[in-house]
Write a structure and sequence with these properties.
The chain is α/β, with parallel strands linked by helices. About 25% of the residues lie in helices and about 20% in strands. The protein has two domains: about 290 residues, Zn peptidases (Aminopeptidase), CATH 3.40.630.10; about 55 residues, Immunoglobulin-like (Sandwich). Strands 1-2-4-3-5-8-6-7 form an eight-stranded mixed beta sheet, sandwiched between helices. It has a four-stranded antiparallel beta sheet with strand order 11-10-13-14, with no helix packed on it. Strands 9-12 form a two-stranded antiparallel ribbon. A hairpin with a 5-residue loop joins strand 1 and strand 2.
Length: about 375
């Protein structure tokens, strides 16, 4: 492997939508035993929202194996995550079977990677853009990270779901995702829920019931990054200093209708938002450095899907019970079991009282 971790030559460049599709198709063709390419829907202008699954058994949910996802380029002009995920896919495929960490990760995790959620916006963005909003929204001029249903009610941005938002919501509901990150740009920090508060006021923290877990997850990414964990503000925001490189979203600025909050409140999936750098659309010549800075963080964060507890909820006859509620005493947030009765609950190390309950069955104390 070369200094970038690849077995074959790598060109660090910005890929057009067509080039991105070609690269994902090539990986799917070259590594059919560990990949599956699929679309979750289309953008306003008809571009497929492509996902490449990486797994030792692609196309199948293996009972007991957690599912993970990365999403990038939700804002069309924030492009670092888009290219980092394409590089991550290449890295995972080329290192499977030879790199113990990567091989174990793929053998024990079903990984889904969507390099772009906003291909239409990307087409309008421009290389070299430091901090504008050119290309940020979708083709209907809607900010997709304000378009999800919000716990505090509708806003002018989410009264009508955009095609990209609806497709991703359906995707999230279709798989038993456990952990996720949404890759953005414009700052350097790992941002965790909640992203807004009841008064929609910037600077007022709004922690979830799993605040300690989210802080741990954010630090997994930040601490593996060479500079994110060091409070260094972007040049245009000298007062933005984030201790440990993490921040509660609402304590930074409110984002009503954000995707990470919707994940947490409407699925089993814990999602954070990674701001990957101060510049939104850096020059292609900078992408290799971004990759070297983020490679370990991207892999380490996937590994975090295995933190906490997992198991199966079964009847006395040994049949898996789907949609059983898994509750942790003292934490007002529940997850449900998947089709085979398998479940995953992200937690910090410690002692917990955990119960499983399902309609028609006696409640059972697991731990």
């Amino acid at each position: 492997m070369d200094e970038n971790g690849f077995a074959t030559p790598t060109t660090f460049k910005h890929h057009s939508n067509e080039e991105l599709k070609e690269e994902m198709n090539a990986l799917s063709t070259n590594y059919p035993s560990i990949t599956r390419l699929y679309s979750v829907g289309t953008s306003v202008e008809g571009h497929d929202l492509l996902v490449l699954e990486v797994s030792d058994n692609p196309g199948v949910h293996e009972p007991g194996e957690p599912e993970f996802k990365y999403v990038a380029n939700m804002h069309g002009n924030e492009v670092v995550g888009r290219e980092m995920l394409l590089l991550l896919l290449k890295y995972l495929c080329e290192n499977y079977g030879t790199h113990p960490q990567v091989t174990n990760l793929i053998n024990t995790t079903r990984i889904h990677i969507m390099p772009t959620m906003n291909p239409d916006g990307y087409q309008r963005a421009q290389e070299g853009d430091y901090g504008s909003v050119l290309g940020r929204p979708n083709a209907n001029k809607v900010d997709l990270n304000r378009n999800f249903p919000d716990q505090y009610g509708p806003t002018r941005w989410n009264r009508k779901l955009e095609p990209e938002t609806a497709a991703v919501m359906s995707w999230i509901k279709s798989y038993p995702f456990v952990l996720s990150a949404n890759l953005h740009g414009g700052s350097l920090v790992a941002n965790y829920p909640y992203d807004d508060n009841r008064s929609q006021t910037n600077g007022i923290p709004n922690p979830t019931p799993d605040d300690d877990v989210f802080k741990m997850l954010a630090k997994v990414y930040s601490n593996a990054h060479p500079t994110m964990h060091i409070p260094t503000p972007c040049k245009d925001q000298p007062r933005e200093v984030f201790p440990d490189g993490i921040v509660n979203g609402a304590n930074w600025y409110v984002v009503p209708g954000g995707m990470q909050d919707w994940n947490y409140l409407n699925s089993n999936c814990f999602e954070i938002t990674i701001e990957m750098g101060c510049m939104k659309f850096p020059q292609a010549s900078e992408l290799q450095q971004y990759w070297l800075q983020n490679r370990l963080s991207l892999v380490s964060f996937i590994e975090a899907v295995h933190k906490g507890v997992s198991g199966f909820v079964r009847s006395t006859e040994g049949n898996g019970i789907a949609n059983a509620t898994i509750s942790v005493f003292g934490i007002e947030h529940h997850v449900i079991s998947a089709a085979a009765g398998d479940f995953w609950r992200l937690l910090l190390p410690g002692n917990y009282s955990i119960t499983a309950s399902a309609h028609g069955y006696d409640t059972y104390i697991i731990f």
